[in-house]
Amino acid sequence: MYPDAYRYSKEHEWLAVDGDTVTVGITHHAQDQLGDIVYVDLPEVGSEFEAGDEFGSVESVKAVAEVYMPVSGEVLEVNEGLEDNPELVNSSPHEDGWILKLKMSDTSQLDEMMDAGAYATFVKQETE
Predict the structure, then answer these.
(1) 57 falls within a domain
(2) 85 in a domain, yes or no?
(3) pLDDT of the residue at 1
(4) pLDDT tens across 64-100, in order?
(5) Which candidate, 42, 97, 108, 121, has a CA 20 to 30 Å from the CA of 6?
(6) Residue 110 per-residue DSSP state
(7) For residue 82, what is the domain's CATH number?
(8) What does pTM read for this prediction?
């Protein structure tokens, strides 16, 4: 359910790491809790964020959830496909439903992220 190669935040974002670039999205658990996604608020390319900053939101038929930057850096690209097909976050949260690509300014922040096993345990504890 959670790709082993990814890193995960306590706010339910995932990161796919490629050098100093990361792809960021929300986890299967997060999209499952939200229900049917109808809108994704994307940040501007070139925007800079610190770890923990809110960078957008995901709106479902049930709720609106803020999305937080798991690491600091500059937005390189956003998934423009989500503008017309926000449901990709539901159908493919860890692949096609990615939200943005970021150039990290501090790769040591990855050390604070969970691996897949730790995240699965975190989710289980949170839902008990």
Answers:
(1) yes
(2) yes
(3) 83
(4) 999 999 999 999 999 999 999 999 999 999 999 999 9
(5) 42
(6) G
(7) 2.40.50.100
(8) 0.94
